[in-house]
Amino acid sequence: MAAVSLWDLAESARARVKEEASKRPGVVQELMLLLGECPSGPTTNMEEVTHWKIVFNDFPAPTDNESPEEVELWSYEADGDTSTGEINDIEVHQEEFLGNSAIHGTVTMTPEEAFKILCQYRQKEEPFQWVSLRLPPSSGHVGYNFLYDPLGNKGWAVNIDNRKVINW
Description:
The protein is an alpha+beta fold. The chain has one domain (6-60, 72-167). The protein has helices at residues 6-21, 111-122; strands spanning 29-37, 51-58, 75-81, 86-93, 130-134, 143-147, 155-159, 165-167. A hairpin with a 4-residue loop joins strand 3 (75-81) and strand 4. The chain is globular and about 55 Å long. The protein starts with 5 loop residues before the first helix and ends with a strand.
């Protein structure tokens, strides 16, 4: 297979997750996280970020006999590669993915665009190893996060709505 965009990879993952989730009728999959890694180490080239974990939660509608609190929420982690376009594995977890809110709508900003905005803001390129697209419940804004250390203690975020850069 040929290289694909992150969004094509995410849509392939969504199709595979939907197939897996079809065993549970009435569920809707919500994108929770895109987490990319450069397998060779820190980089300033987004094309080297090829390994992606794509996480969905499913949100089943409660039946007539269930309250919303009784509904089982599951999560699905898809491992994919933008250099080949392949989704390698789907892990199913019988618990929801926590720490992020669902990403709704279409995200038009690419990770490459976000990194360019970050470099312009900082007036330098600093190598990063991980990049994620997420919606932290505390901020209410979807953003790309560029992480520089394995503990996630040093990084920058680029808000996709207003293009603001945040250091955290």
